[in-house]
């Protein structure tokens, strides 16, 4: 029987509330390890959280930047100070390796620090009117109550890069983290609470997307929704928000191309693809999932990449020598294995990809390379979201660029080449929100915009000062002397 005192509660109106229902947070490296019980909300909790946010909004919106700066700075400092301990929790609940998890926690701290600064730099614009004797001022104001819905694959960085700008610009927030990884979001809630976030300014309700997520997105008192997750869920949320004429920002999946040209440095190209395709168990929206390789370098590249991929150590996320942690859960693993089966029909050769039975019961999979594939195959059209990459052979730069752009997605795209001309043409012509030259498609800075094109994103960019586009509304004021 559950001990109610052990349940990690929701944070609503400045109070921890446990409710009647909870679910275990399970370590994917070792399913015998239950990290904790986390409360599951229903529509009532969502109502209370949104009501508290609405009640707090007028005061917070006019509280001035100093209080916001201090709150975000304090949370950022504590995340950075405690990055090893919180990173360990992240590795336990999500399954990325300890160094990756500590790095993600530090990133969350840096994001809070960045937006602590941005809170002090909200600027406007004073212009002369075309009518003599009138002043025109364009100012930025907070949007209101913002619902944030986040996925499991970056359980601390993504909540951070939504919460921090939302609060910095004077909004009130209700966060629903992914049901699979509530632990890190719970830590952020604890820190905001501890460092004096006023009741209702930040609330967190945990639970399923179909109940809690849906209740938030369609709640009449929510002004805007920022979502990161799959394209399918994003489309549903876009329809709901469109019908309600509600501001919405969607960051969704990818099928990111990495082009390797004949003149690429082989070592650089292999490292970029090994990292981009398989690190973080391939569970990154920016993962290099289609490797588009020119004929002259193809065989040497594939041979070396396959050799290094086979040597990657798959294991418990907390073990020091692990390079690839487990897949996040049984459902995702089953989906990955279905794609491996599909690849046996669609590719000329499949290397790796099998389920691994290690000492501890977990969701382990060997990284996989699918060779000899065509870009119109399902394995090249659909996001797999696991440690799997396809290889597509092309003859020249024009074909590589055409294949790179022949996708419904447009998040990140990369090229490995020593030619300035090819790198420049690729940067200009590739249809993606982020372009990488001689770098993995994954791995970005926190002070510049993040986001994609086509089916990968909808609405204004996240991160950096561009985040102001979503988290503020402009007001144009005319004043006669
Ligand atoms: P998901 O299944 O779409 O879930 C994302 C979030 O939406 C979760 O909190 C989920 O709740 C919630 N949700 C599900 N159904 C909902 C509904 N009807 N209404 C409102 N909310 C709902 O995605 P995921 O599997 O967690 O994450 C993987 C996906 O995220 C991949 O496609 C990946 O590419 C994408 N991603 C994109 C970016 C980016 O910035 N572009 C970054 C990271 C990940 P539950 O807790 O019930 O699942």
From TrEMBL:
List the Gene3D superfamilies: Aldehyde Dehydrogenase, Chain A, domain 1, Aldehyde Dehydrogenase, Chain A, domain 2
Q: Start and end of every Aldehyde dehydrogenase domain?
A: 20-476
Q: Which Pfam families match?
A: Aldedh
What keywords is this UniProt entry annotated with?
Oxidoreductase
Under SUPFAM superfamilies, the record lists: ALDH-like (SSF53720)
TM spans (from-to): none
Active-site residues per Swiss-Prot or TrEMBL entry: 251
Family matches, as InterPro entries: Ald_DH/histidinol_DH (IPR016161), Ald_DH_C (IPR016163), Ald_DH_CS_CYS (IPR016160), Ald_DH_CS_GLU (IPR029510), Ald_DH_N (IPR016162), Aldehyde_DH_dom (IPR015590)
Acetylation recorded as keyword: no
Give the protein family. Belongs to the aldehyde dehydrogenase family.
Q: What is the official name of this protein in its record? A: Aldehyde dehydrogenase family protein
Q: Which organism is it from?
A: Paracoccus maritimus
């Amino acid at each position: 029987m559950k001990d109610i005192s052990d349940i990690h509660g929701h944070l609503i109106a400045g109070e921890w509330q446990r409710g009647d229902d909870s679910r275990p947070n399970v370590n994917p490296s070792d399913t015998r390890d239950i990290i904790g019980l986390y409360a599951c909300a229903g529509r009532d909790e969502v109502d209370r959280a949104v009501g508290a946010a609405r009640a707090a909004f007028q005061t917070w919106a006019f509280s001035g930047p100093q209080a916001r700066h201090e709150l975000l700075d304090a949370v950022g400092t504590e995340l950075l100070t405690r990055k090893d301990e919180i990173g360990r929790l992240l590795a336990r609940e999500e399954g990325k390796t300890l160094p990756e998890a500590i790095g993600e926690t530090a990133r969350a701290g840096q994001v809070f620090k960045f937006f602590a600064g941005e809170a002090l730099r909200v600027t406007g614009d004073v212009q002369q009117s075309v009518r003599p004797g009138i002043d025109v001022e364009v100012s930025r104001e907070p949007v209101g109550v913002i619902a944030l819905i986040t996925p499991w694959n970056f359980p601390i960085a993504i909540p951070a890069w939504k919460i921090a700008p939302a609060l910095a610009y004077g909004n009130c927030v209700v966060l629903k983290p992914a049901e699979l990884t509530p632990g890190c979001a719970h830590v952020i809630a604890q820190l905001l609470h501890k460092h004096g976030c006023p009741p209702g300014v930040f609330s967190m309700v945990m639970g399923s997307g179909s109940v809690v997520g849906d209740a938030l997105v369609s709640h009449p008192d929510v002004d805007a929704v920022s979502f990161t997750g799959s394209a399918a869920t994003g489309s549903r949320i876009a329809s709901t928000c469109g019908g309600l004429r509600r501001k919405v920002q969607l960051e969704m999946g990818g099928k990111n191309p990495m082009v390797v040209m004949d003149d690429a440095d082989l070592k650089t190209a292999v490292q970029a693809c090994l990292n981009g395709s398989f690190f973080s168990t391939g569970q990154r929206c920016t993962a290099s999932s289609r490797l588009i390789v020119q004929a002259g370098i193809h065989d040497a590249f594939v041979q070396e990449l396959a050799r290094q991929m086979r040597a990657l150590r798959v294991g418990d996320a907390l073990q020091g020598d692990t390079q690839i942690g487990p897949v996040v859960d049984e459902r995702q693993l089953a989906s990955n294995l279905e794609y491996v089966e599909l690849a046996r029909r669609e590719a000329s050769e499949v290397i790796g990809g099998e389920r691994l039975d290690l000492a501890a019961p977990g969701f382990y999979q060997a990284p996989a390379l699918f060779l000899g594939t065509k870009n119109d195959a399902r394995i090249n059209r659909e996001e797999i979201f696991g440690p799997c990459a396809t290889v597509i052979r092309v003859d020249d730069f024009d074909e590589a660029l055409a294949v790179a752009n022949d996708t419904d997605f447009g998040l990140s795209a990369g090229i490995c080449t020593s030619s300035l001309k090819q790198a420049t043409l690729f940067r200009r012509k590739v249809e993606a929100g982020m372009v990488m030259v001689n770098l993995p498609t994954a791995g970005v800075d926190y002070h510049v915009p993040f986001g994609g094109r086509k089916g990968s994103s909808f609405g204004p960019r996240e991160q950096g000062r561009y985040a102001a586009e979503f988290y503020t509304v402009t007001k144009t004021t005319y004043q006669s002397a």
